[in-house]
Design a protein that fits this description.
The complex is a heterodimer of chains A (249) and B (310). With 249 residues, chain A is α/β, with parallel strands linked by helices. In chain A, the strands form 2 sheets. Chain A has a 9-stranded mixed sheet with strand order 9-8-7-10-6-1-4-5-11, with helices on both faces. Chain A has a two-stranded antiparallel sheet with strand order 2-3. In chain A, strand 7 and strand 8 form a beta hairpin. In chain A, helix 3 crosses helix 4. Chain A is globular and about 65 Å long. With 310 residues, chain B is α/β, with parallel strands linked by helices. Chain B has 2 domains: 166 residues, HUPs (Rossmann fold); 119 residues, TPP-binding domain (Rossmann fold, 3-Layer(aba) Sandwich). Chain B is 27% helix and 28% strand. Chain B has 8 helices and 16 strands. In chain B, the strands form 3 sheets. A 7-stranded parallel sheet of chain B has the order 5-9-4-1-2-3-10, with helices on both faces. In chain B, strand 7 and strand 8 form a beta hairpin. In chain B, helix 3 crosses helix 4 and helix 5 packs parallel to helix 8. The radius of gyration of chain B is 21 Å and the shape is globular. The termini of chain B are far apart. Classes of the chains: A alpha/beta (249), B alpha/beta (310). Strand 13 of chain A pairs parallel with strand 16 of chain B, so a sheet runs across the interface. Chain B: Heterodimer of an alpha and a beta subunit. Chain B: InterPro entries: DHS-like_NAD/FAD-binding_dom, ETF_a/b_N, ETF_a/FixB, ETF_alpha_N, ETF_asu_C, ETF_asu_C_CS, Rossmann-like_a/b/a_fold. Chain B: GO terms for molecular function: electron transfer activity; flavin adenine dinucleotide binding. Chain B: One of its GO terms (biological process) is fatty acid beta-oxidation using acyl-CoA dehydrogenase.
Chain lengths: 249, 310
């Protein structure tokens, strides 16, 4: 079985982004970019399935600008066998990405698609579910445990009150939560080997997909600032302030 | 223009997040209808009919709808979608699971986690872990939305008298099945609805210490317990207590952060709290930059002292 793993190039999670002064967006020029943390977990899970003999091939996919190649090389250094870049300079929203991935699912016929549950830039949490809908596949979102056997995947999901286990027929779409696994560090020899692995480039037009955005961003603003707080000397002062100044207890 | 709210419920009662979503739906203009899809969920449908501002409740009953599987709930929503201009879900694990599936089938973009309705087609939503607010306009005819519950007041749970209409359940997709669940039992207020939250971080050192130090303070304040990702990953607290960008988003009256440094991802989940108290022994901890009251102290002595003083 093939496993398809979509990965996204995003602003590194440690960077505190700034809103541009003209309110057109956030300033991402000269900011460190890396693979979306949930996607690292997705690649790791796919590679582990391969190491267990469940998956035969792991294909990493990324949609976006040419620099997404670096993200794909990282995925291959973790252990993906080959990569596909859907290259475009257009802004891509989740529905467009889901359509591009649907076209690749039709072509590659993977048994499992593993995505991150959300990207830390747009915080949308949509692409996996949308892909599942378009490809008419079952979905198991926010996975913290995945077991594949007998044409089914049994997936434990993180839900609001605790955990829930569902069983989905393959092929299926799984999205990863934080606690699914601990992604491995890539080693230098593997980075070197990843440079030799195949990376195909296609365009949205090749796949016959219209990627026009459906949401127009009118403005991006700074969130309201909290007024400066104060340090209190001891517990007694804290209790007094909470009771008499803030009146919250 | 009519808005459809997909109720979050446990087949017996309506969950609080639904009430906030009804408020957001009313702001989109037009009538608000509520869908209760479940199994033997008559009581939940009756409760939905009492929510102030709801004009109609649609009740769909089927065994395969019992556990809110995305494939089946999405099909149920799609069967009704043609009559609605707005379809809103609470931005909970359940809502986030189903909403994008509905949007994709309708071939429309989905708007996640809105915090404000500016116009019937224009919404505000946080991006980059809440470090920026985007104002977005939907170019699609139908709007499929998830609502950040802390962004809207709860609609009154009593006072309405909507008619309940029963519709036939759409068939089971057969592609997925519910196997079981492990729901953490506790008699504390629900984290996302609590007025006061006491939250612990990695500094607590172990699951035993977490319980021993945080619980008495939470008991004293009648508070819900939260945790940082570091505390959850280290096994000090269960996953569903995680507050942050990828956990729960909360906005209580009082948030007490104990031994939490205040990483961007954690702040994203709690910085809309009314009053934030930080107890941390590191004077440089970023949590102090958002705290209204900061106490620089060792939490193992400060918290028991605080419990005594209350």
């Amino acid at each position: 079985m093939k496993v398809l793993v979509p990965v996204k190039r995003v602003v590194d999670y440690n960077v505190k982004v700034r809103v541009k002064s003209d309110n057109t967006g956030v300033d991402i020029a000269n900011v460190k970019m890396s693979m979306n943390p949930f996607d690292e977990i997705a690649v790791e899970e796919a590679v582990r399935l391969k190491e267990k003999g469940v998956a035969a091939e792991v294909i990493a996919v990324s949609c976006g600008v040419q620099q997404c190649q670096e993200t794909l090389r990282t995925a291959m250094a973790i252990g993906a066998d080959r990569a596909i870049l859907v290259q475009t300079d257009e802004e891509l929203q989740p529905l467009a990405v889901a359509k591009l991935l649907k076209a690749l699912v039709d072509k590659e016929q993977p048994g499992l698609v593993i995505l991150g549950k959300q990207a830390i830039d747009d915080d949308a949490n949509q692409t996996g579910q949308m892909l599942a809908a378009l490809a008419d596949l079952p979905q198991a979102t926010f996975a913290s445990k995945v077991e594949v056997a007998d044409g089914k995947a049994q997936v434990t999901r993180e839900v609001d009150g605790g955990l829930e286990t569902v069983s989905v027929t393959l092929p299926a779409v799984v999205t990863t939560d934080l606690r699914l696994n601990e992604p491995r560090y890539v080693t230098l020899p593997n980075i070197m080997k990843a440079k030799k692995k195949p990376l195909d480039t296609v365009t949205p037009a090749d796949l016959g997909v219209d990627v026009a955005p459906r949401l127009k961003t009118l403005k991006v603003m700074e969130p309201p600032k909290r007024s400066a707080g104060q340090k209190v000397a001891d517990v007694a002062t804290l209790v007094d302030k909470l009771k008499n100044e803030a009146k919250v207890i | 223009m009519t808005a459809l709210v997909i109720a979050e419920h446990d087949n017996a009662s309506i969950k609080g997040a639904t009430l906030n979503t009804v408020t957001a739906a009313a702001k989109c203009g037009g009538e608000v209808h509520v869908l209760v899809a479940g199994h033997n969920a008559g009581a939940a449908a009756a409760a939905a009919a009492k929510i102030a501002g709801v004009a109609k409740v649609i009740h769909a009953d089927g065994e395969h709808l019992a556990h809110g599987l995305a494939e089946n709930v999405a099909a149920q929503v799609l069967a009704l979608a043609s009559a609605y201009s707005h379809i809103l879900f609470p931005a909970t694990a359940a809502g986030k699971n189903v909403a994008p599936r509905v949007a994709a089938k309708l071939d429309v973009g989905q708007i996640s986690d809105i915090t404000r309705v500016d116009a019937a087609d224009t919404f505000e939503r946080p991006i980059y872990a809440g470090n920026a607010i985007a104002v977005v306009q939907s170019l699609d005819e139908k709007k499929v939305i998830t609502v950040r519950t802390t962004g809207f007041d709860a609609a009154a749970a009593e006072g309405g008298s909507a008619a309940v209409e029963t519709v036939g359940a759409t068939p089971d997709s057969g592609k997925s099945a519910f196997v079981g669940n492990e729901i953490a039992k506790n008699d504390r207020p629900e984290l996302t609805a609590a007025k006061i939250i006491v939250s612990g971080g990695r500094a607590l050192g172990s699951a035993e210490k977490f319980k021993e130090v945080i619980t008495p303070l939470a008991d004293k304040l009648g508070a819900a317990i939260g945790a940082s990702r570091a505390a959850v990953d280290a096994g000090y607290a269960p996953n569903d207590l995680q507050v942050g960008q990828t956990g729960k988003i909360v906005a209580p009256q009082l948030y007490v952060a104990c031994g939490i440094s205040g990483a961007i991802q954690h702040l994203a989940g709690m910085k809309d709290s009314k009053v934030i108290v930080a107890i941390n022994k590191d004077p440089e901890a970023p949590i102090f930059s958002v705290a209204d009251y900061g106490l620089e102290a060792d939490l193992f002595t400060a918290i028991p002292e605080l419990v005594k003083a209350l």
